[in-house]
Structure prediction request, 378 residues.
Amino acid sequence: MKPTLRVFLAFVLFVALAPSVACAAVPEDKPQSVSLEFGNDFYGAGESIALLTDAPDDAFLAGAVVNVTKKVAHDLFTAGSTVMILADVGDDLRAGGSVVSLAAKIGGDAIVAGGVLNFTENASVGGDAALSGGMLNFSGTVGGDLQMAGDQINFSGKVGGDATIRVGKQINFLAGAKIAGKLTYYSKEELVIPAGIAASVEHKTYGEFAALTQKSFTTSAVESLFTLIFGFLTGAVLLAICGRSTQVFANKLREKFWWSLLAGVGALAVIIVVLLLALTVIGVWLAGVLLFLWIASLLSAGALTGFAIGSLFLRQEKDTQYFQKLLALALGWVIILAIGFIPGFGGLFQILIFTLTLGAGVLTKIELYKKMKTTKLL
Prediction:
C-alpha cells in the first residue's frame, strides 16, 4: 500500500462521529454519496456505500451504512454508523462504527472498534487484532496476539498467541474459548477464570493500567497546550489576512460535507504526484513548486481547523466581526484538543477534522477560480 494513503486511516475510522456534523449540512431527504478510483484503490463516502466489484488493491469506505460484500485484495479502511464486513480482506483491516459486524477472513492485522462489535464465528484474523467495544461478542479466531477492551464481553473465540483484555463491567468465557498463550486481564477485582482457558493467567488492577499510561498522558497534555497556543496564534493571523473568505470556507463543511472529505483525501494524495514528478528531469522544478504549495496548504488547514469547528459549533453562517472569529477559533481548538484525550479515538478524530478542513479549503479555492473565470479575471 502507498505510504501516503495510510493517512486515510486516521479519518476513515472516525467518520462514525461524522453523522452528527453531517446532519447540519445535508438534508435527510437528499442523500449524497461520492466515489473515486485512484489507480487500483477505491474511495467511497456517502449515506449508503457498498463495493460493487472486487477491489484489486485497497478500499476506503465511509458512510451511514457500509456493506462490504466484495473481496478487497489488500487493505480495507472503513467506518460508519452500521458496518458489515462479509467478504475477505487480503491484508489489514481498520474499521469503526456504532455497530460493526465482522464475518470474513482478514489476512493481516485488524483494528476494530464499535459501540457494539460482533466478531462472529466465521471471522478470522491471520495476524494480531485489537478489538474495542461497549458490547463485544468475540466468537472468531485470531492467529496472533489479541488486545481487547470492552464494557460487556462475551468470549467464545480462539487466540493463537497472548491475550490482553481490559474488562469494564463483565466478561463471560463461553464454550469454545481458548487462548494458546498468556491471558493478562485488567479489572477492578480478580475474576474467576475457567481452568484451561489459557496457558497462564495474570490479573492486574486499573491502577497498574493507569500507571502505564500516565507518562504518555502528561506528555500529551504539554503537547496539546503548545498546539493550542501555536494553532490559535497562526489561525488569528490567517483570519486577519483572509477576511470574509474564511467564513465561506467554514460553510463548506455544512454545504458539502462528503465532498470536503473526498477533496481532503485527494489533497493529501498530492504528495504522490510530487514524488513522481521528482523522478523526472523535466518535472523536478514543478515538483518543488507543488511541494511548497502542498506544505503551505497543510499548514493553513491545520491553523484554521479550530475556526472551522468553532464556527460550526456557534452556527456562524454569515461573516462576523474579527473578535467573534477569534472566539470561534479558540473554542474550536479547545473542543478538538479535549476530544484528543479520548483514548484510542482522540488522535484519529483530530486527523478526521484536519482532513475535512483541508478539503473544504480546496473546494473554496476551486469555487474562487470558477468565479474569476466567469468574470474574466483570469
Observations:
- Confidence is low (pLDDT under 50) at residues 1-32, 212-218.
